[in-house]
Write a structure and sequence with these properties.
By secondary structure, this protein is an all-alpha fold. The chain has helices at residues 2-8, 13-41, 46-74, 76-93, 99-111, 116-127, 130-159, 164-185, 195-198, 205-208, 211-240, 247-267, 275-285, 294-322, 328-356, 359-388. The longest helix has 30 residues, at 130-159. The mean pLDDT is 88. One of its GO terms (molecular function) is transmembrane transporter activity. This is Major Facilitator Superfamily protein. It comes from Virgisporangium aurantiacum. Keywords: Membrane, Transmembrane, Transmembrane helix.
Length: 393
């Protein structure tokens, strides 16, 4: 645990991770809060709620690189404050809006979502040394897993005792509070020795958005596509077994395994190529389909869970290494967009596989998606190494 103590001892790191956790937990719950509002308060269908979720997700995916580019130019405080104002307006007004207006307003709300994840990753790259970075990104991945496990569950529990509009206000308040905390901290997104590198100006995209970066972004997309597919296949398996009430427990086991895997990976002394944990994650996902009740599923998802945070950590670390300091915000924004796209596409693709075959087919498709992304990443990385290898003569 020495590496983690060193990371948390970096001035400002512990407080940044704390306020970022608040914002990210609320952001992971925003879709659930809007779904409950549309279904319970407006008394519309889940398909209508899915439209709002899709609108918000599309905004988040498109807004990632745009906000990142603004952070590169203006710094995190100014950009985060603009997004905080947008979130205040949106979440305060949600309970008073009709469905059509909520559907339309969700897109700009996603476009200007508080970039808590992106700012945290940039700050980690700027505030830590090379030897500390893997442990720091492991903590960031663990933070993401905790927010995913806690956020939606808290919203569902609150919805049982509060009205959906109050729940929406609560989620909005947490997003705003976390964003305001990040703006107050104003973490550095450039290391002390990097301003000199910025003097040459912003490099053209073709210089940094090359084969290596495309490889990492492809693996980011494949990772979240796999993870969203696993979640849907878990629900389908338990619904077929008449045990759907255990879905939250199985997902929680997977999340806790991911936390453990992330901490183990961050404390290790050897880094892994990004494609390796993703490829193994794809392999161990496929046989989960042989589990047919909640108890077997709890055991089967542990392997995939142990590899989830290490894979996400390796992706974030690779992006930080490949992106020049002057475009790190845009690069991390592209990573967030790739991951959002993977989450958005994973569920319908795996859902179609489940409808055409069985829940086991859903796990197989999710695992194959991860394997395909890992293979693409390995091939592209190999091509990059060959292209940059110095001439032996």
């Amino acid at each position: 645990m020495t590496k983690y103590r060193q990371v948390l001892a970096v001035p400002g790191m512990a407080s940044l991770l704390g306020v970022s956790l608040i914002a990210r937990t609320a952001i992971t719950a925003d879709v659930m809060a809007l779904t409950l509002y549309v279904v319970l308060d407006l008394e519309l269908s889940y398909a209508a709620a899915g439209g709002v979720a899709a609108s918000l997700t599309a905004g988040v995916a498109l807004g990632g690189p745009l906000l990142g580019r603004m952070i590169d130019r203006r710094g995190p405080r100014a950009v985060v404050l603009v997004t905080v104002v947008m979130q205040v307006v949106f979440w305060l007004s949600v309970p008073f809006l009709s469905y059509g207006i909520v559907l339309a307003a969700a897109f700009p709300a996603g476009l200007l979502m508080v970039p808590a994840q992106s700012v945290t990753r940039q700050a980690i790259a700027a505030m830590t040394t090379t030897g500390q970075r893997r442990a720091a990104f492991a903590l960031e991945s663990v933070q993401g897993e905790l927010s995913y496990v806690v956020g939606p569950a808290v919203v569902i529990l609150c919805a049982a005792t509060m009205s959906p509009d109050v729940v929406a206000w609560g989620v909005g308040a947490a997003i705003v509070g976390g964003g305001a905390g990040i703006a107050l901290l104003n973490p550095p997104v450039r290391a002390e020795d990097e301003p000199a590198a910025l003097a040459g100006g912003r490099p053209p995209r073709r210089e940094w958005l090359g084969t290596g970066m495309v490889a990492v972004l492809s693996m980011a997309f494949g990772t979240t596509m796999l993870l969203s597919g696993i979640d849907l296949a878990i629900v389908a398996t338990l619904e077929e077994a008449g045990q759907v009430s255990w879905a939250a427990g199985v997902v929680a086991v997977s999340g806790l395994a991911s936390v453990a895997g992330g901490l183990i990976y961050g404390a290790s002394s050897r880094a892994l190529p990004t494609w390796l944990p993703l490829g193994v994650l794809g392999l161990v996902t496929i046989p989960i389909g042989f589990a047919h009740d909640w108890l077997w599923l709890c055991g089967a998802v542990v392997g995939a869970g142990l590899l989830t945070a290490p894979t996400l950590s390796a992706v974030a670390d690779a992006v930080s290494r490949l992106a020049p300091a002057s475009v790190r915000g845009e690069a991390t924004g592209l990573q967030s967009s790739a991951q959002s796209a993977g989450f958005a596409l994973g569920s319908p693709i795996v859902g179609a596989a489940i409808d055409l075959s069985s829940p086991a087919g859903g796990f197989a498709v999710a695992g194959l998606a991860g394997l395909a992304a890992a293979l693409a990443g390995w091939v592209l990385s190999h091509l990059q190494r060959r292209a940059t290898k110095p001439d032996a003569t």
